[in-house]
Amino acid sequence: MSELDFLAQAFGVTRGPAEDRSLSARDTLRRMNSAFRILTDAMPQMVWSTLPDGFHDYYNARWYEFTGMPAGSTDGEGWNGMFHPDDQEQAWNVWRRSLETGEPYEITYRLRHHSGDYRWTLGRALPLRNEQGEIVRWIGTCTDIHASKMMAEENEVLSRELSHRIKNIFAVINGLIGMSARQNAELRPLAAELQDRIAALGRAHEFARPHSEQSRPVTIASTLQGLLTEILKAYPAQGEGRLTIDGDDPEIDDRSATPIALVFHELATNSAKYGALSSERGTVDITIASRNDEIALHWIEARGPEILGEPASTGFGTKLVQLAVTQQLAGSITRLWDRQGLRVEMRLSADRLKRADGAPV
């Protein structure tokens, strides 16, 4: 394909018979073609393009610099051979689905570097359509994410090691309580109750800590009320009827369990330190309401220490809650510092609570 044909198809330009093409039109297209190539070569990402049927016929300079391949050697289907052997089948399947459906293409794979090593890369592509809605070309990018991928894996190892040590601490504490109870029979009922609470704290920790695909719990509560009940078992107020959960009970899965657990674990911890749960008379009411594509949650504290106003500063936990609600759950959160107790209003996107049927884990 000539550069002129390439650009004409990329921009959906219909070209008539050769005798009808004016020199000015050809010059315009050549200038547009030149500008397109200058732009893509200036980008830090690898840029590629295909015909509507997926035939690769263009790569920018970054692609050849990264791969070290001769110009034109990866045209057609040659691109797939650049992927790690373990990633090639999946890359083909995802690409074929995009070609069949017109859906945006996105995948993470290992791409062979000119050094011979494989580096993690994020591949994306979008279709260009003409006025009739027909796909005339696909434009894609490859972004080297190897450094961030390695950092994420390292952080995951550290997180799992820290979690393991924290769970060991819970186990040691439970063991010490059990030993003390065996030596003092009158302490056994209290010890058993305390051990139950520590075990609940351990379960809350397992839900609340950040998870990867490898460390995510295999079985979790399948509804929002079920998860909240599990997370808040550590607090005596729940067993005493001073911490209640009412309203709708939408289904959830592991997609939303961790950010929800983070949010309510933080709210409960702060309440136990400074709010209603720090008082023997204090109450917390949690209500859940499903409204079309939105889930409304209310955390209402009462009968605790009197609140004189909004705190002058916020800690890391508050920022963590904000990020979990706004980014991971696509929602909003508002705190109202009423004199009678803290009120927290959250609105979450319903489609963030659970994966769509058939979506990958």
Automatic annotation (TrEMBL):
Keywords: ATP-binding, Chromophore, Flavoprotein, FMN, Kinase, Nucleotide-binding, Phosphoprotein, Photoreceptor protein, Receptor, Repeat, Sensory transduction, Transferase, Virulence. InterPro entries: HATPase_C_sf, PAC, PAS, PAS-assoc_C, PAS-like_dom_sf, PAS_fold_3, Sig_transdc_His_kinase_HWE. The keyword Transmembrane does not apply. The keyword rRNA processing does not apply. SMART domains: HWE_HK, PAC. Gene3D superfamilies: Histidine kinase-like ATPase, C-terminal domain (3.30.565.10), PAS domain (3.30.450.20). Its EC number is 2.7.13.3. Residues 105-157 form the PAC domain. It catalyses: ATP + protein L-histidine = ADP + protein N-phospho-L-histidine. SUPFAM superfamilies: PYP-like sensor domain (PAS domain). GO terms for molecular function: ATP binding; photoreceptor activity; protein histidine kinase activity. It is an enzyme of class 2 (transferase). This is histidine kinase. It comes from Blastomonas natatoria.
